[in-house]
Amino acid sequence: MPVSITKVKEIAKVKELFDESEGSAGARSIAQMATGQGVPLSRYRASRLMKKLGLISCQIPGHTYKKAGNEHVEIPNELNRQFNVEAPNRVWCGDVTYIWTGKRWAYLAVVMDLFGRKPVGWAMSLSPDSELTSDALKMAYESRGRPKGIMFHSDQGSHYTSRRFRQTLWQCQIKPSMSRRGNCWDNAPMERFFRSLKVEWVPTYGYHSFTQAKHHIVKYLIGYYSQLRPHQHNGGMSPNQAEENYWNNYKPVASFT
Predict the structure, then answer these.
(1) Which PANTHER family does the UniProt entry name for this protein (predicted)?
(2) Bridge pairing between strands 91-100 and 105-113
């Protein structure tokens, strides 16, 4: 029995989206992305086609929040887990993680805009120091057009409490906020982001070189994660789509002010 044109399109789209995600997208994500690209698919249909094609994705386990403790003595937890932000460039958060690059660990600092969970600044180096975190913050500040009135939230790592990093915050006129000591869920969006990066994208045994790691991770940050990957926080939209929708709705309102 001949295969219908519709089914051929569905199979091709499922394979295309799975490949673009480098094997990370599940049936729900593929159904949402395919439907958004003009090939309507239900989660059930996507699951059936993935099974038929032998495609098995990585899925991220859930987590629970832990009890909070004391605040940093100098920089309080101003954010206080208020992770739902009404507009871009209001609250950014940041963190550092480690990546194996063949012979030694490299360190990745990322700055995320909480509105759409979009990575807006990043830096990689072989040292987890304040130069690394400052470079990531400066990239975010410049790439977003030097916005005013930003709050930046992080943990109490020395690369964030250092004089150098605090001077960077002051130069950019960004208000600091810090998690309570020993409470990683005070910065839960960054914990989730790095978990997604490592589970969905980073090879199990790391990379062969620093250059390979940097190139591949940037591909995730500006490509798959920001442009394609559906995010539950955004109602199934990618971070780029969430921000685009905001600005499309914001402009007509702004024109009356």
Answers:
(1) TRANSPOSASE INSF FOR INSERTION SEQUENCE IS3B-RELATED, TRANSPOSASE INSO FOR INSERTION SEQUENCE ELEMENT IS911B-RELATED
(2) antiparallel
Report phi then psi at 101, rounded to 5: -125, 45
To the nearest 10 degrees (0 to 180), the angle between helices 163-171 and 130-143 is 10
CA 111 to CA 92: how far, in whole Å? 6
pTM above 0.70, yes or no: yes
The first and second tokens of residue 25, run together, are 């997208």
Could you tell me the CA-to-CA distances from 43 to 25, 92, 144, 228 in Å, in that order? 12, 32, 35, 17
pLDDT tens, per residue, the chain with 257 residues: 455 777 777 778 778 877 777 676 777 777 878 877 878 888 778 788 777 777 776 554 443 434 444 444 478 999 999 999 999 999 999 999 999 998 899 999 999 999 999 999 999 999 999 999 999 999 999 999 999 999 999 999 999 999 999 999 999 999 999 998 877 789 999 999 999 999 889 988 889 999 999 999 999 999 999 999 999 999 999 999 999 999 998 865 554 44
**Cα(93)–Cα(111) distance, rounded to whole angstroms?**
6
